[in-house]
Design goal:
Length: about 190
């Protein structure tokens, strides 16, 4: 029976299709590993940039809150002239030095986060190729199964399996959703 199946597949040309499909699987695994690697690198860059930017923002926030409290004292007439002069100098220093330095450093980290997302373009292309490979492999295997199926088992619902997976199963009764249903379908087809 195995020899007959092998000869039939060879006669139909499916042996070359299977060979091509099987040789594409290691390439797909390499592509998926590449995607995982780039995604991991991007996630690390984003987390590192966030770790750097967070203290910068906390420092700005603390400085602004402290200056705000002192300015509240000025508006409540609870500060003398000398304290007011020190506050004005401190505020000027904060606005002219601290804020520009911390915002520039934060902007640099935001740019790092943005640049870390460049992997998306590359991985998107690779994902499309892997999905195409998976679709081709699925179609070829389904064709082989249907072609080698006994004639009395081949029905219209079996032939519709070549249409690929259902994306939106809502309102449909011809969609399998569990491994048990897949096993039952294959059993009904004689496999």
């Amino acid at each position: 029976m195995a020899r007959q199946l092998h000869d039939t597949l060879g006669a139909l040309g499916y042996d070359k299709i299977l060979e091509k499909s099987i040789s594409a699987i290691p390439d797909a695994k390499d592509r998926l590993a590449y995607i995982a690697n780039l995604t991991e690198q991007a996630a690390c860059k984003v987390l590192n940039a966030t770790d750097v930017a967070n203290p910068l923002q906390e420092e700005l926030e603390a400085g602004a809150v402290a200056l705000g409290a002192k300015w509240d004292a000025v508006f409540a007439n609870k500060m003398g002239v000398e304290d007011f002069k020190r506050l004005a100098t401190e505020t000027r220093g904060f606005l002219n030095n601290v804020v520009p330095q911390r915002t520039a450093a934060t902007r640099e980290q935001l740019m790092e986060i943005m640049m870390a997302q460049d992997f998306q373009d590359l991985t998107g292309q690779v994902i499309k190729k892997v999905v195409s490979l998976a679709h081709d492999l699925e179609s070829q295997l389904m064709s082989i199964l249907i072609e080698t199926m006994p004639g009395d088992k081949r029905t219209e619902s079996v032939n519709s399996l070549l249409n690929g997976p259902v994306i939106n199963a809502e309102g449909r009764t011809d969609v399998v959703g569990s491994q048990q249903q897949v096993d039952d379908l294959l059993d009904s087809l004689g496999f």
